[in-house]
């Protein structure tokens, strides 16, 4: 994450959530986003939501629940809730072994297949893109692979997230060196403009990406997304329960064009979630393919 989003305030630590309030809020969050908060993460609700309670001058978690359900401003508050409840940890060039497989196998083969068919249109979906480091990394890799040929391609990376705040940061494209901690130095020199302590992404990367909000628990919204050759959904389904994971993974399968690939986070698995994908094992990662 480039900018540190404060998800809790020291002032608000004194507020305690009761068991009943926790269950109400936990169920509400699940209903609205598919994010599942286990019992042992009650502190997360307490820390992150108390910031909103203070900001709204409310007295308790119970009052906040009623605000979220019934207040005339509940729609705006839901946006704020998504901002505080999501975990947006990310970085450029996250999981280098997986990105190597993406660059050398998935992307190279996809481009070769498309060229063979006389097509020059490529669609990539970064679902749960946080502050933009993932889709910008993909844009850099595309430039590295295609070089000047990129000008002859119609490429779109659709980058979606639930949190409007992270999307705003992604669109700004300004990062600290912490966000670049796993990025090769030559890549930093090539694709960023350094202004004092801030690194600004090259506009040619921005041109490849469309940032937009999406709620992955909204099946209808997922159906509306343009079909993809490649989907990245890394370190996102980890926050869902199995039922929500199944629903989202099924939507990704439907979205992928025949022969398309999906990449998930290194600690995530499709075990007990989906048997429709064909897993391909590579050094350091599994690529999930939709049958051609
Ligand atoms: C830990 S970040 C991962 C970012 C990036 N994919 C990576 O691996 O570095 C998880 C992101 O998923 C988003 N997210 C969580 N639930 C979501 C939902 N229901 N719909 C869309 N995005 C969601 C969060 O807002 C957060 O930015």
Q: Could you provide a short overview of the structure?
A:
With 292 residues, the chain is α/β, with parallel strands linked by helices.
Overview features:
single chain; 292 residues; alpha/beta; Chemotaxis Receptor Methyltransferase Cher, domain 1; Rossmann fold; 2 domains; seven-stranded mixed β-sheet; three-stranded antiparallel β-sheet; 11 helices; 10 strands; 43% helix; disordered N terminus; binds S-adenosylmethionine
The name CATH uses for the topology of the largest domain is Rossmann fold
- Please, what is the oligomeric state? single chain
Major β-sheet profile: 7 strands, mixed
Care to count the β-strands?
Answer: 10
Helical content (DSSP H or I, runs of 4+): 40-55%
The Rg value, from CA coordinates, equals 20 Å
């Amino acid at each position: 994450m480039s900018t540190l989003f404060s998800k809790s305030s020291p002032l608000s630590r004194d507020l305690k959530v009761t068991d009943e309030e926790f269950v109400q809020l936990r169920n509400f969050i699940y209903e609205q986003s598919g994010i599942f908060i286990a019992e042992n993460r009650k502190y997360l609700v307490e820390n992150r939501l108390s910031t909103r309670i203070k900001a709204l001058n409310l007295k308790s978690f119970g009052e906040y629940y009623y605000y979220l359900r019934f207040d005339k401003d509940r729609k705006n508050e839901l946006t704020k809730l998504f901002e505080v409840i999501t975990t947006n940890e990310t970085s450029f060039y996250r999981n280098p072994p997986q990105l190597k497989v993406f660059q050398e196998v998935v992307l190279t083969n996809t481009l070769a297949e498309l060229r063979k068919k006389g097509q020059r249109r490529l669609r990539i979906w970064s679902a749960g893109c946080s502050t933009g480091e993932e889709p910008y990394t993909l844009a850099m890799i595309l430039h590295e692979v295609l070089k000047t040929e990129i000008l002859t391609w119609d490429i779109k990376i659709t980058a979606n997230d639930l949190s409007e705040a992270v999307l705003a940061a992604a669109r700004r494209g300004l990062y600290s060196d912490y966000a670049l901690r796993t990025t090769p130095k030559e890549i930093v020199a090539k694709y960023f403009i350094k202004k004092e302590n801030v690194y600004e992404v090259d506009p040619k990367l921005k041109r490849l990406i469309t940032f937009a909000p999406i709620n992955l628990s909204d099946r209808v919204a997922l159906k509306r997304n343009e079909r993809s050759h490649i989907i990245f959904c890394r370190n996102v389904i980890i926050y869902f329960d199995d039922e929500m994971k199944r629903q989202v993974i099924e939507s990704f399968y439907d979205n992928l064009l025949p022969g398309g690939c999906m990449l998930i986070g290194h600690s995530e698995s499709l075990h007990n979630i989906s048997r429709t994908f064909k897993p391909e094992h590579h050094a350091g990662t599994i690529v999930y393919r939709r049958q051609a």
